[in-house]
Amino acid sequence: MRIATLMINGLRHKLPELLGWMENRQPDLLALQKTFMCDDDFPKGAFGGIGYRSLSFRARSSEYNPGVAILIREKGRFEQGEIVTGLPCPDVTGSRFLSVDLDGVHFASVYAPYLDYLKKAEAIRRRVGWLRRLHDHAMNLARTGSPVILCGDFNVKIDGLPERETAKFSEDERRELIAWRKSGLVDLYREAHTLHDDPGYTFGFSSTCPEGTSRLHLAIASQSLARHLVRAYVDTRAEIRKEARPLVVEFAEPVR
């Protein structure tokens, strides 16, 4: 089973490139972030035309709503269960979390808050609070024995080139994700990256930095799922979004 995640930053203008990449790579599950497309406008027909069913979450609202989505390859014949939209957290709003149970596996698309309009200390407090809420959600499911995988843009720079600390890359947030590892959740790329020419960076690609600058996009899973992991890599050749590349993880089947 192949799972991928990509922060698309505007699906409407990236759709042809994304469809081409999906037809070529054929991920079984794909998590998208920052679609900036409301549910009523989401191009389900375009994805259906290449064999995928779509789930999206972005309501029409005046608040900042980046939008998240999940695409499911029909050939995989996943049995679809409960869908969850939104992660309750009073300090952070917007469409940042979408999950679905597929054959007993809890699969989520995640877009963690950035909050650059706030002062640094307040932004960090709210962001850490949201990450803790997400951690609690994953651990509650994992304790029941349900396999869990969270894919998306966590907006925390845990690996990458040195640079000035900002509210986006604070030590408080790094420590929060380290605590996730200690609790039993597995950073799948760190666990099993397999391409020697792949630095693992998913963001910051440019003509002057062709290998990227940082690893902001993650796939984090419960141990029950991680033990089936075969391969993890960044598709550095993908040309969907100029500055970001898809993260791909592959599992031996069955994963349940």
Please characterize this protein's 3D structure.
The protein is α+β, with helices and mostly antiparallel strands. It contains 6 helices and 12 strands. The chain has helices spanning 11-25, 44-48, 120-143, 171-182, 188-192, 223-226; strands at 2-7, 29-33, 52-57, 68-73, 80-85, 97-102, 105-111, 148-153, 186-187, 217-221, 229-234, 247-251. The strands form 2 sheets. The protein has a 6-stranded mixed sheet. The chain has a 6-stranded mixed sheet with strand order 5-6-7-8-10-9. Helix 1 (11-25) links the parallel strand 1 and strand 2. Helix 3 (120-143) runs parallel beside helix 4 (171-182). The longest helix has 24 residues, at 120-143. The termini are close together.
Write the layout of secondary structure elements.
Elements: E1 2-7, H1 11-25, E2 29-33, H2 44-48, E3 52-57, E4 68-73, E5 80-85, E6 97-102, E7 105-111, H3 120-143, E8 148-153, H4 171-182, E9 186-187, H5 188-192, E10 217-221, H6 223-226, E11 229-234, E12 247-251
Parallel strand pairs: 1-2, 7-8
Antiparallel strand pairs: 1-12, 2-4, 3-4, 5-6, 6-7, 8-10, 9-10, 11-12
Helix pairs in contact: 3-4
